[in-house]
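user: can you give me the structure for this one chain? tokens are fine.
assistant: on it. calling the predictor now.
[tool input]
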Amino acid sequence: MKWGNSKNRGRGRVWGAVVLALGAGLCTSAAQSPDAASHVSVSGHLARVPVRNGESVRFWITIENGSASPIARIRLDRIDPVDFDRVSGSMSVPSERVCQAPAVERPKGLAVTAPAPQNEICAYLGPHESFTVWGDLRASESVDRQNAFAILEWESAEGPSVIAAPLGEIESLSCPRWFWFSLLHNWELGVPTFTAFFAGLFALWKWRWDKREADLHEKRENESRIQRDLEEKREARLHEERDKRSNTWNLMLQDSHRVTLKYYMPICNDLIAATQEIRRFHDAHSPNVAIAQSAFYYLLKFEWNVRTTRRELGGYYFKNRTAEWLVYFLYQEHRALLRLKSPPIQQLLDRCLDLMSAKVTSSTVGGMIGYGDPDIVAFWKYARKWLSNRRCLQDLNILDGYFGILIYEANRPYEHWYDVKLEPLKLSALARTAVTDVAREHKLGPETDKYLEEAGCPKENPA
């Protein structure tokens, strides 16, 4: 045969060496097999693993006598682990063709052979014979997974022998663990069970989800309904308040207009004239009787208009209650500075005011002083001294505050009439200080600060 080139010839030599080596190995194995078969071998196994507590499991043990001499009195000493007990009456019985010694005619007079031990499973196993025995094991309690062994003993020409034959792993499970094991390893039981379980779990989740969504929807509906009810009530309340305010405004605007024209404006006109004349008197730096009499006249007219308002109207009616209290307390402070809280002086003023009317002019008052009306002359002398006193200058700040608040509140109802923003309250720094001092004296400090701030007369920017 031709191999072609030198490379192919080299490969042929390698493959030839491999074939020769394999042939030699096979011959060696064939030569060693009789020696390997000249021993007794024992094997065993279990039917299944694991088992449930109290349930039997079948085991098999096979003995092969590969030696040239028989073995006898083969016994099953025990099976480990000892937690598994052999089930009584479950061991197999050898057939008549195995485990039987050759028939030998016993000499006469020979004693009868002793009975076989209880754990003997085979009395005689000839050369190159095999024997299989089986039985059942059972454990009453849970046993962890471990290896099981069968301990066998026999007698031979070489002497007694003992061997441990592995049966495999064995385990005994409690009922809950057995059920779980069955679910995981027995698809005929596990698949329907898990299908039903997950279907039920999904149905439960779906029910809870639908219930939660329904509850959330109901909650949102309730909140929306409550919100709508609140909005409707709020709108109804606002509408009712607007109607009341509108009705009140329509009813009060006429009265407010009448009160302003009849009472508040005359007070403001006479008061501003009186304060201006008093300042003229002090600016002259010399006693000017004509200016003093003019200031006296307007002061009487101011007091007469205040008394008329108090008698016919009963008080001040503004849109702000704090403003009502402020003009009241400011006027009382004016009375204190004019010493009208002294009964004789107040009585003297009342008699003078009885002589006054809306038609009385400054000439009329001057004439009363000239022809010597006792009450007018007495109060004129008192007022002339007061005009030169520092209490008069202090009273000017009180009267300025009184005038500023009164004129502001008198014009407040006309904010929408003129269709322009209401002018802020105008007070000088001294007048504002006088107002806040009087307010704090009567425990109206916070309310007054808030009122002045809302009226556009903050502390930082006085008029």
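assistant: here you go. The two ends are 135 Å apart (CA to CA). The CA atoms of residues 397 and 430 lie 6 Å apart.
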